[in-house]
Amino acid sequence: MFDLDLWREIFQSINKNRTRSLLSGFTVAFAILLFAILFGIANGLKNTFKEAFGTDANNSIRIYAGRTTKAYKGLQIGRQIQFKNEDRDFILDEFGDKVQYITSKVNKSVNASYKGEKNTYEVRGVYPEYMYIENNKIKDGRYINQGDIVNRTKIVVIGKKVETDLFFKENPLGKYINLSGIQYKIVGVFTDDEGESEESVIYMPISTTQFIYGNNDFVDMMHLTYNPSMNSDQALAFGNSITTKLKQKFSVAESDQRAIRLFNMAQGTKQVDIMTASLTGIILVIGFGTLIAGIVGISNIMIFIVKERTKEIGIRKALGASPASIVSIILLESIIITAIAGYVGLLIGVGVLELIGPSLETYFIKDPGVSNSLVVGATITLIISGAIAGYLPAKKASQIKPIIALRND
C-alpha cells in the first residue's frame, strides 16, 4: 500500500543531504552516460558493417566457376569449369537440410524499350528462391514461381528503377516490355533496400533465359543460403565442404584456388562477431568499473546518513518500528538516488548520441543509438545497484538498539 509519509520522509532526507546525494549520484550518472555512449558507438559500428554487407541475406554463399590453374588427373591447365543445372541438384543431394535456399543464376545485358523509352539493363535468370536470398520486396504483382520455371514462361519482374525509367506514372503490370527484340509480359515490380543499382535489374525464370539466350543448361554462378541455425564456424566448414565436393566432381586439384571460388558471408560475420564481442567486453569493464565506484559512493553516503539519524532510528524502534520498516526506508532512498542519477546519465548519453551521431559517419559509425533492451537492462541494473548500495547501511540501521541510540550524541 502506498505510504505518502514514507515517501515524503525519503525525499526530505535526500533534500537535507542534497550535496552529498548529488556528488554520489554523479558517479552513477557518469557510468550510465558512459555505457550509453559506448554502446551507441558499438551499435553504430555494427550498422556500418551491416551496410557494407548490403541487404542480401547474411547467411549467403556465392559459388563461381573459373579456369583451372593446375593440371590434374591428366587434364590440362587452363580448363574452363562450366556449371550446369545439375550442379544445383548435386548440392541439394549432397547437403540436404544444410541448404536453406539455393538458385542458379544466368546474367545477360539487354536493351529494354517501352513506347519509345529505352535503356540498358541487366537481366538475371533465377529460381523463385532468389527473392529470399536477395531480400527483394514485391511492390506490385508477384515474383517468379515454379510454374514459370517449368513452362519457360516469357514473363519478367522489373525493379522499381526500371518502372520509373520506362513507364513513368503508367502501371506496368500486364504490359509487354521489349528486351533486345523479344516481348515479355511484366508480372511484378520489386524494390531493394540497396537502392537504384539493384532496382535497375530485370528478373526472369532461369529456364526461359537459358532457352532464349543459348538454348542450353549453362549457369553463370550459384547462390545459396545456409541453414540459419549454423554458427559461423559450422557455416565456414559447410562452405569448405561444398568447394571440396565440387572440385571432386569437376576433377579439380584441391590446391587449385581459381577453378571453383566460393564467397562465404560467414567469414565476414565471424570477424564482425569477434570485433563486436571484444568491444562489448571492453565497454562492460569500463562501464561496470565506473558503476561500482558510484555504488561505493552511494553506500558511503547512506552509512553517513544512518549514523546521522541514529537517535531518530532509536526513537522509531522504541515506538515499535520493525527492523523491516527501517531497512525499507534506507533501501528505498538508496534506490531512488541511484535510479534518478542513472536515468539522468542515460538521457544525457542518448542526447549526446543524437547530437553527434550524424558527424560520426565520417568515422564509419552509422546511426549510433541505444536499443530498448539496453534501456530495460539499465533500469534493472540501476535498481539492483541501488539495493546493493543501501543493503549494508540498511542492515546496520535495523540492528541499532534503542537504548544505545538514545544515548548517542
Question: What do you see in this structure?
Answer:
The radius of gyration is 33 Å and the shape is elongated. The chain folds into two domains: 4-53 and 270-406, no CATH class; 60-265, no CATH class. The strands form two sheets. Strands 3-4-9-6-8-7 form a six-stranded mixed barrel. A two-stranded antiparallel sheet has the order 2-10. α2 packs across α12, α9 packs antiparallel against α10 and α10 runs parallel beside α13 (372-398). It has helices spanning 4-16, 18-52, 85-95, 130-134, 146-151, 160-167, 196-199, 206-212, 232-249, 265-308, 310-318, 323-356, 372-398, 402-407, and strands at 60-65, 83-84, 99-114, 117-126, 137-141, 155-159, 176-179, 182-191, 201-205, 218-219, 221-226, 260-264. Helices cover 56% and strands 19% of the residues. Belongs to the ABC-4 integral membrane protein family. The chain crosses the membrane at residues 21-42, 279-306, 326-353, 373-392.
Order of helices and strands: HHEEHEEHEHEHEEHEHEEHEHHHHH
Helicity range: 55-70%
DSSP E strands, number? 12
Instruction: Sum up the overall morphology in one term.
Output: elongated
Q: What is the number of independent domains?
A: 2
Number of DSSP helical runs? 14
Radius of gyration: 33 Å
